Predict the structure.
Amino acid sequence: MAETTGDMHNEIKEIKKIGITTGGGDCPGLNAVIRAVVLRASALGIEVIGIEDGFGGLLHDEPLGARTLTTRDVATILDRGGTILGTTNRGNPFSYPAPGGGLVDRSGEVIDKVRALGIDLVITVGGDGTQEIAAGLDRLGLPVIGVPKTIDNDLAATLETFGFGTAVQVVVDALDRLRTTAESHDRIMLLEVMGRDAGWIALHSGIAGGADVILLPELPYEPKAVAEALTKIYAGGRHFALIVVAEGARIAGEGVVTKTVEGALAGRHAPILGGAAHLAANRLAALMPGLEYRVTVLGHIQRGGTPIAYDRILASRLGVEAVEAAIRGERGVLVASFPPEICTVPLSSAVGKVRTVDVGGQLLAHARALGITFGVARSAS
């Protein structure tokens, strides 16, 4: 894909100081991006300021959550999960929690503090929520460059995001272990994985992990169709099965499954998904009584730990290209991956939309050719 740059208004003629912030959920490879930005910027004589906890570090009470990052600071973080800068999914400066309750717009304070620190441009590492914030700050005159991050691989305007590969590997490792138990005990094992609106993790891990059934948010399923597929497996002489369930998967004609939460979690704006695999197990048990069903929910295990080699490479390349784009004078862009190339695209193309699985695409066709079922009639998919 040819390089397409974003808004070039108010071009930056010279970069002396770059800020970097990580926002949204944590993800394997965030530290690799930070390291790459610091290494490349330092080689060019550019100072890097790490902003803590998304943009929240600039809105904390004193001391300010921002510090200079040196090559020594990042020397040992390439293989480390999480982010040394911290992160949050509740630090939107345009809708920031007020001490007395409610939300206030503190975006102007963020811009003022960035300028007070002498930062010429901020690299924002995050998913759609983080990049939407970045786009808003860019419109207000703060130069930004986005780096795409999400284990769900659902960010628009890029074909891949770092962290996805590691999450898939974690799921595949779990499937490998569940298979031995399923075979030993003649059980149907259901594994619930992340994926609110997009089933990339479920699809890729299901293929790589030898799943018999994959339930995706993009394809509402019918328990009867899943039961029919399992009946064929048992009729063939095998008495166990593996089912991968995305947390956003739902039965045709029904809504997504959410958790009832209390305490601090009860104040979340978005409902917390959970229980899709348990629901599937219950519906299947009603159709196929007498079999044993077991459910495993991986949850945040998919987010943590050491990034695989591919994610380290991808994150490093994205970090380097973010600095290169900055010194070229670009702003309001997202550094995107279109293998084998890394390029920049308008930041606006990355927000307000989700990249979902193409249900009529080749990947699903190949999965079906392997005997995997998605719980729907072919005419419905």
